[in-house]
Automatic annotation (TrEMBL):
Keywords: Transferase. The lineage of its organism: Bacteria, Pseudomonadati, Pseudomonadota, Betaproteobacteria, Burkholderiales. The keyword Oxidoreductase does not apply. This is GNAT family N-acetyltransferase. The keyword 4Fe-4S does not apply.
Length: 144
């Protein structure tokens, strides 16, 4: 799948429709995360990144919280393994750099641990359950 991906960075008002659709499909429908946990009320404070395919359909999303946490990174099933998750993550890390964060932190589902490690994130502490899914905290120090 070698196609052009467009990444839009914006606030919740401009990203909500497409980000919610992706997160609903990935987290709520596929992973059985309760919708009240998925929509945690923090989205309006975040910077959001949404990836679009050549047909301008939303295919992936993620967010950066004001404290430097990255979260809600989700890629539709048909686009996993295509590099779009990396593009979303890189976009959010670069946004954190632009905002002068010294590091970014995320709560990785353990199956995605190697994905984040390839992007410079280092696991710390043990695993824990969140929404019935095993997670690990991972950090990435940022330099200019």
């Amino acid at each position: 799948m070698n196609q052009t991906i467009r990444i839009a960075v914006g606030d919740w008002a401009s990203s909500k429709h497409d980000a919610v659709a992706i997160r609903q499909e990935v987290f709520v429908e596929e992973q059985n995360v309760p919708v009240e946990l998925e929509l945690d009320g923090l989205d309006s404070e975040c910077v959001h990144a949404v990836a679009y395919n050549e047909q301008d359909q939303p295919i992936a999303t993620g967010r950066l919280l004001p404290d430097g946490h990255i979260g809600r990174l989700a890629v539709l099933a048909d686009y996993r393994g295509t590099g779009v998750g990396s593009k979303i993550l890189d976009t959010l890390v670069n946004e954190a750099r632009r905002r002068r964060h010294m590091e970014v932190v995320l709560s990785a589902q353990t199956h995605a641990r190697n994905f984040y490690a390839r992007h410079g994130f280092v696991a710390e502490g043990g695993t824990y359950m969140d929404a019935g899914i095993e997670h690990v905290t991972m950090r990435h120090s940022l330099t200019a």
